[in-house]
Amino acid sequence: MWRFLRRLLTSEYLVLLLTALYVLCLWPFAPEIVSAQTALEVIMAMLPLLLLAIGQTFVLIVAGIDLSITSTMAFSSVVAAALMTGDGGYLAGNALAVPVALIAFLLIGLAVGCANGLCVVRLGMPSFMVTLVAQTFLSGAAIWFTSLHSTSVSIGDLPAAFSVIGRGGIAGIPYALLLCLVVAFAAHWLLGRTTLGRWLYAVGNNPRAATVSGVPTGRVIIIAFVLSGFCAALASIVYTSRLETGTPVLGQRVLLDVIGAAVIGGVSLFGGRGKISWVILGVLFLSVVDKGLQLLGLSQSIVFAVKGGVILLAAIIDALRSRILVRVAA
Amino acid sequence: MQTSSTRASLAVLRSAPALLFVAVVVLFAILAPRFLEVQNFANILTQSANVAIVAVGMTFVLLLAGVDLSVGAAMYVCAAVAGLYFKDLPAPAAMALMTAIGALFGAINALFIVGLGIAAFIVTLATLFVGRGLALHLSQTKMVFAGDPVLAFGQGGFLGISYAVWTMAIVLLLALWVQQWTPYGRYLYAIGADREGARKAGIPVRRVVFATYVLCGTLAGLGGFVSFSQVAAASSGFGLQKEFPVIAAAVLGGTSLFGGRGGVLGSVFGAILIQTVQNGLVLLNANPYLYPLVISAIIFIAVLLDSQRTRILARLTRRQIRIEPGVEARRSTAT
C-alpha cells in the first residue's frame, strides 16, 4: 500500500489522475461536466493560459520567475489596439493596420522580456523584484496610455481581420488552438532536443557549474525571459482578439493561475526541473477545477479561495514528492 | 587602492536611501511650496503609518531571506471580520482582535513553511488567494464599514499627534529593541546570513522562523487596523497588492531581499519616503495615472542599489577566499 502510494506520488501523471478524480467526484453534482460542450469550453479557456505557462516554464527552469506577464499582455493589448482601432487609431482603415499591430504585440513582448533579462543578468537584481516592478510599471502605463486614447476604460472597434484570429479557424480547428499546438511543440523540441534546452536546465540546476562548463549563463537567462515575453505577447493576441477590445486590465487575474499551473504540473520554483507535457497537464487541471466550480454555481470569491487551496495542495504534494525522491536517491 | 574605491562606493550605496529622500524633499519643496508646511509632514506620517507597521514585520521576514506575500490579504481578512461581526467593540479591543486574527493568519503561513518545508513564496501566494477569497465571501464583495469607536481612533490623536503615528512609533521602538537587544534579533541576522551555519551553532532555526512569520501576520493585522480606522470602510480592494509597497519600503530602507542585512528603522523610513513621493505628486496635481509609474521607478532604483551593494560585498568576500591556503592544496590533489 505504502509502496503504491509512493509510486503514485512520484508519477509524472499524478496531475492527470487528480483531474480525472476531480471530474468523477463532481459528476453526480454537475452532470454537464462530462460533455463535449464543456470539454470544448475548457480547451478554449486553457489556450492563452497555456501560452503564458509555457513562457513562464522557461523562466522557472532557469530558477527565475516572471511576474510581469499579465502586465505585458495588458500593455501590448492597448498599444496594438490603439494602432488599429477604427475609432481614431493611428492606422485606422489602413490595410497594413493588422500586420503592424501584430508586430507591435510581439515587439513589446520581446522588449519587456529583454529588459527583464538584462536587469536580472547585467544588474544582478532578483527576478522576483525586477518583474514585480515591471508589472506595476506596465499596468500603470497601460492604464495611462488608455486614458490618452479613449474616454472609456478600453479601446474597442478593432478590425474584423484581427478578431478572426481569436474566433475563426481552418476546418473547424480554431486558429488559437493551432497556434498553441505549434508553440507547445516548438517549446517541447527546444527543451528536449537542442543545446539551448540543455543549457536552460544546466543554468537552473547550478549556475556556477554551468558557467564553469562554458555555458553562456547570462545569455541563456536573458533568452528565457525573452521567450516568456514573447509567449505573453502571443497570449495577448489571442485574448485581445477574442474580446475584440484592447483593455488595460487584460488577464489581471491569471498571473497566479499561470504560476500555479506550472507548479502543479511539477515545474520546480528552484529551477532545473520542468517539462512542457507537465505544464499542459497543470493548466488542464486548473482549467477543469475552475470550470467545475463554475458549474457548481459557486461564487467568484469561493472560486478564488479554492484555487489558492489547490495551489497550496500542489505545493504540499511537490514537497512530499521531492522528499521521497531524495530518500530514494539516498 | 581598488578596495578603497569599492569601500567608497559601498558607503555611497549604503547612504543612498537617505540621499534619495533628501533629493525628493528638495525637489518637491522647490516645485510645491505647500509641501514644506508642518501640517503636510504630519499628514505624510499619518498616511504612511499602516505601510510602515506592516513593513516592520516584513523586514524581519526578509532578514531571514523569506518573503510574505499575504500581508495585504491578512489586512483584508482582519478588517472584514472586525467590521462585519464586531462593529461595536471599543478601539483597543478591535485592535487586539485584528492583531490576533493577523497572528493566526501568520501562524497558518508558518505552519506550512516550517512544518512542511514549502517555499515561503508559494505558501504566502496561496494564502493570499485563500484569504482574499474568504474575506470577499464573508463581505459578499460589499463595503465593510468600521464601527464608530474605530473611526474615532482613526481621526483622534494625543498631544496633537495622531494615534496612527503613535502606534507606528511604539511598534518601531519595540521592534528596534527586539532587533538590537534580544537574542531573537541576533538570531534573525545569523539565520539570514547563513542558515546552515546558524543551525549548527545551536540556534533554534525552525522556532525563530515560525515566530517571525507569526510576527509578520500580527503586524499585518495591526497595520490593517490602522488602515481600516483611517479609510473608515474596507472595499473589495482593501489591502489589495499591499505587499508591493510594503516590500518596497523595506528594500528602500536598505533591507536586502537576500537576507541577513537591513533593519526596521530603514523600513519605516522607506515607507515614509514612498508616502512623501505620493504626497508630493498630489500637491503638484500630477496626473494620477502616472503615480504607479513614478513609484515603480523609485522602487526600481532601490532594488538596483541593493543588488549593486550585494554584488560589491560578494566581490569583497571572494577576494578573501583567494588568499586562503586551502585553494593551493585542492589544486594539487586535483592533478
From TrEMBL, chain A:
InterPro entries assigned to the protein according to its UniProt record, in alphabetical order? ABC_transp_permease
Which GO molecular function annotations are given, in alphabetical order?
transmembrane transporter activity
**Membrane-spanning segments:** 12-30, 42-65, 72-92, 98-121, 128-148, 168-191, 220-239, 251-271, 278-296, 302-320
Keyword Cell inner membrane attributed:
yes
Q: What is its membrane topology?
A: Multi-pass membrane protein
Question: What is the annotated localization of this protein?
Answer: Cell membrane
Where is this protein chiefly located? membrane
**Keyword field:** Cell inner membrane, Cell membrane, Membrane, Transmembrane, Transmembrane helix, Transport
Stored CDD domains: TM_PBP1_transp_AraH_like
Q: Which GO terms describe its cellular component?
A: plasma membrane
Answer whether the UniProt record assigns the keyword Cell membrane to this protein.
Answer: yes
What is its quaternary makeup? The complex is composed of two ATP-binding proteins (LsrA), two transmembrane proteins (LsrC and LsrD) and a solute-binding protein (LsrB).
Biological role stated in the UniProt entry: Part of the ABC transporter complex LsrABCD involved in autoinducer 2 (AI-2) import. Probably responsible for the translocation of the substrate across the membrane.
Q: What is this protein called?
A: Autoinducer 2 import system permease protein LsrD
From TrEMBL, chain B:
**Where is this protein found?**
Cell membrane
* Topological category with respect to the lipid bilayer: Multi-pass membrane protein
* Keyword terms of this UniProt record: Cell membrane, Membrane, Transmembrane, Transmembrane helix
Q: Which organism is it from?
A: Kaistia hirudinis
* Single GO term (MF): transmembrane transporter activity
This protein's record includes keyword Oxidoreductase: no
> Which lineage do the record's taxonomy fields give for this organism?
Bacteria, Pseudomonadati, Pseudomonadota, Alphaproteobacteria, Hyphomicrobiales
Query: Which protein, by its recorded name, is this?
Result: Ribose transport system permease protein
CDD domains documented for this protein = TM_PBP1_transp_AraH_like
